[in-house]
Design the sequence.
């Protein structure tokens, strides 16, 4: 007898493949964007099913949430769609490329030749000296801290790149009364949830990216509800928040190289405090950058 878990997993796989195909090959951009947003939600559910709650939270908040708002905003400001049907050769090329990617992914999930990886055991053995009690946090902010620093730099470069586009921004329509009412309720909850995810990241799934995305989502809700005024790059405190994460991370890296044992090699007695400071700074920077990417700077650049 087929178990309900197997039926659920197979249904989820079929939904992911169908939504991905619809997002790529849809004839209308609106259909493609909506398919992409739903695909992000299903992917978040897939990560949760696999036990990767950190990735599930990030995918739901950033992949399906804020990026979905960005795509809908870009679609609303784009010109009318032209009737350019996809040619059969393009469909065949897309199918071949998809099969190649599928083969590569199949190789990636195959069991290792020597059995299980030794990395989880090594992480757990070094966990007590990392300054964090959760292995994911220890990897991202201690053992592989360079990865997180580069992610913050990529986000900063993305924001600076968007600022050069100088988009034309139409005036926002009046917000629905229901949206304004719910915004006043949901925005304080996003602050509470974001703070909780930041605190939880030291010992459980959560952390700076998840908390920052939730805080940015709260600002987007207030802006769409007409409650939050326009916030642009001209505010010095907002520029400081955007740069805070990269600046503090870089300062810690330089100090550890100058006074310690190497770049981003924390002293054991200070590792917990340094990780906490970096997490707080990164949360504020991520929230400010994502907020500006979605709702900020457009009036200033269009002037």
Sequence:
């Amino acid at each position: 007898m087929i178990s309900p878990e197997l039926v659920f997993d197979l249904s989820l796989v079929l939904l992911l493949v169908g939504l991905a195909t619809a997002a790529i090959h849809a004839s209308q951009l609106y259909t493609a964007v909506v398919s992409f947003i739903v695909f992000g939600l299903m992917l978040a559910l897939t990560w949760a099913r696999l036990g990767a709650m950190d990735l599930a939270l990030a995918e739901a908040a950033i992949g399906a949430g804020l990026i979905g708002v960005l795509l809908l905003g870009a679609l609303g400001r784009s010109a009318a769609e032209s009737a350019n049907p996809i040619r059969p050769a393009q469909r065949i090329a897309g199918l071949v490329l998809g099969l190649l990617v599928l083969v590569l992914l199949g190789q990636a999930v195959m069991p290792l030749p020597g059995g299980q990886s030794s990395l989880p055991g090594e992480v757990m053995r070094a966990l007590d000296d990392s300054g964090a009690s959760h292995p994911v946090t220890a990897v991202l902010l201690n053992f592989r801290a360079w990865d997180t620093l580069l992610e913050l730099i990529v986000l900063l470069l993305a924001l600076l790149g968007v600022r050069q586009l100088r988009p034309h921004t139409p005036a926002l329509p009046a917000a629905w009364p229901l949206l304004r009412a719910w915004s006043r309720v949901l925005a304080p909850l996003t602050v509470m949830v974001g703070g909780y995810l930041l605190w939880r990241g030291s010992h459980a799934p959560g952390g700076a990216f998840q908390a920052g995305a939730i805080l940015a989502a709260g600002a987007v809700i207030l802006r769409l509800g007409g409650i939050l005024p326009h916030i642009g790059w001209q505010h010095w405190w907002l520029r400081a928040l955007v740069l805070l994460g990269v600046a503090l991370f870089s300062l810690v890296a330089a100090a550890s190289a100058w006074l310690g044992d190497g770049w981003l090699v924390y002293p054991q007695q200070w590792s917990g405090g340094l990780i906490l400071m970096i997490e707080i700074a990164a949360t504020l920077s991520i929230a400010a950058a994502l907020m500006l990417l979605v709702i900020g700077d457009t009036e200033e650049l269009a002037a």
